[in-house]
Amino acid sequence: MVRLLEAMERLESRLNSYWNFYTVVVLAAGGWILSGDDSFAAGQAIAVSVALGAFFLANLAVIRAATDRLLAFEDELRQVAPELPLRSAMLRRNLAGIAMPGRMPLSYLLHFAVDAAVIFAVWSKTAA
Question: What is the pLDDT of residue 83?
C-alpha cells in the first residue's frame, strides 16, 4: 500500500506541476496582452490565438493523461482499502472513497473557461 500511495503522490505532484506551468503561461500571456496600449492586427491576433490554443491543448492533454493515471491508481486503492489491516475506520473509509469527485470534468471546465478568457483578451485588443 505504501508504494501505491507514493506513486499516487508522485503523480499528484506531476499534475500540480502541469497546472503551475499553465498558470504561469496564462498570467504571463494575460499580462502581456493587457499591459500594452497597442492593439493587434488581425493576422497577429490569429497567430497569437493559434499559439496559445496549441499550448492550451497540449497542456490539457498532459493534464488528462496524468489525471487518468492518477484515477486508475485511486481506483486500485479503493479496491484494496476495505481489506487493509488498518486500525482507523476513518482512514479505511477515506481510502475507499473518491478523493475528488468530478476531477476531470472540473479540470476541463476550468481549463476551457480560462482558455476562452485569454483568447477573448487577445481579440478584444484587435484593431477594428
Answer: 83
